[in-house]
Amino acid sequence: MPELIAIRRHLHMHPELSMQERETSAFIQLKLTEYGIPFSAGIAVHGIVGLIEGKNPESRVVALRADMDALPIVEKNPVDYCSQNPGVMHACGHDVHMTSLLGASKILNELREEFEGTIKLIFQPSEERFPGGASMMIKEGVLENPAPQIMYGQHVLPTLEAGKVGMKPGKYMASTDEVYLTVKGKGGHGGTPELNVDPVLIAAHILVALQQVVSRNLPPQLPAVLSFGRFIAEGRTNIIPNEAKLDGTLRTFDEKWRAQAHLNIEKIASSVAEGMGGECEVFIDKGYPFLVNDDEVTARAKQFAIEYLGEEHVVDLDMRMTAEDFAFYSQLVPSCFYRLGIRNENRGIVHNLHTDRFDVDETSLETGAGLMAWMALKSLTQGNL
To answer: Which of 69, 198, 243, 359 is catalytic?
Structure first.
């Protein structure tokens, strides 16, 4: 535990943004070298893949993944391990993910003479930014030589108490697309509206009209959201600008409906703009697919967790509309992406992901590292997929 805490605090103090994880990668390589674990670096720029081979290494392969990047947030935690990189913070728990995987790696490497098969360690950059480090690493062969039969990923959950984990079989996290609309009109003086084609008004109508994409075009049993968080019109009180911009996100759990929604967004936005005398350029940046947990792998993982932690420390989770690029792996390898509790209300550790006061109860590191090692070992020794 002292080593895990030291690793986590070092990583937390030195966060790096997506595709800038140079020092983070160097630190992980240093630890793997210290543990005597062979690895390859420079995959998808800063990614690392390590291999722990037991006896008969080709018999079975289990992959474990941790993401490495941080977020552009100014940390406001009054702690001595606060971020030392201004404007950058591990506000999504990736420092915990890396620490857990390093801890599990050390445990598993010390036990390599006691199991058959191979454990593949994947330290992945750029989970927080499209197109996602997972897709980049897959393109560079991370799921080959050797190919894993099972894959596990872990993510912190601020609403779950430290010492507990949560799991859900089947569809778990949503696909995510970024929607960018540029509404074009004709600017001018606010006091002469008859001479203008007001893109602000057009954009407002488009924003309202697009609500029907979910409320009237989506089967009620299918979860989805279309939300817009940015509306920019660079005019003034008496200046109508030439254009306005809307940025939003589309999330769902069905690829067929997702594709149709893209078409509906473009059709509605363009027709509303045209009907009001303007035009609308639509760009939809297709992001991560939905994340699906394999039913059998997740059922076994839940049983492994109960054996390790006790039934009272393993909870069932609901679907989430947040997204995660582990989904790229889960679409190709039977996987379980589970949640690690980090909450401690007595210590005020209650803040949500992606906030400037996010922190974790570090006792969760013991659960994170130990359970990951335990599940990897059990997966090598019990049953076949």
So the answer is: 69
Confidence (pLDDT) at 277: 98
Dihedral over Cα of 143, 148, 149, 154: its sign: negative
**Can you give the pLDDT at residue 382?**
79
Q: Which fold has domain 2-173+289-381?
A: Aminopeptidase (3.40.630)
CATH classification number, 177-286, choose in 3.40.190.10, 3.30.70.360, 3.90.700.10, 3.40.50.970: 3.30.70.360
Helix boundaries (H) for the chain: 2-13, 22-35, 94-110, 133-139, 199-209, 212-215, 255-275, 295-309, 326-330, 364-381
The reported pLDDT for the residue numbered 74 is 98
Question: Does the bond joining 223 to the residue before it have cis omega, within 30 degrees of 0?
Answer: no
Report the b/e string of 333-348 with b at 16+ CB within 10 A: bbbbbbbbbbbbeeee
User: What pTM does this model have?
Assistant: 0.94
The one catalytic residue among 67, 95, 127, 243: 127
Q: Cite the residue boundaries of each domain of the chain with CATH code 3.30.70.360.
A: 177-286
Residue 383: per-residue pLDDT: 53
| pLDDT, tens digit, 9 for 90 and up, residues 285-314 | 999 999 999 999 999 999 999 999 999 999
Residue type, 23: E
Residue range(s) in the chain whose domain bears CATH number 3.40.630.10? 2-173+289-381
Distance CA 131, CA 229 (A): 20
Is 198 designated active site?
Answer: no
What is the C-alpha separation between 191 and 171, in angstroms, rounded?
A: 53
* Annotation marks residue 67 as catalytic: no
What type of residue sits at position 2?
P
Radius of gyration of the chain measured on its C-alpha atoms: 23
Phi-psi region of 36 (alpha: psi -120 to 50; beta: other; left: phi over 0): left
Below-70 pLDDT ranges, the chain: 383-385
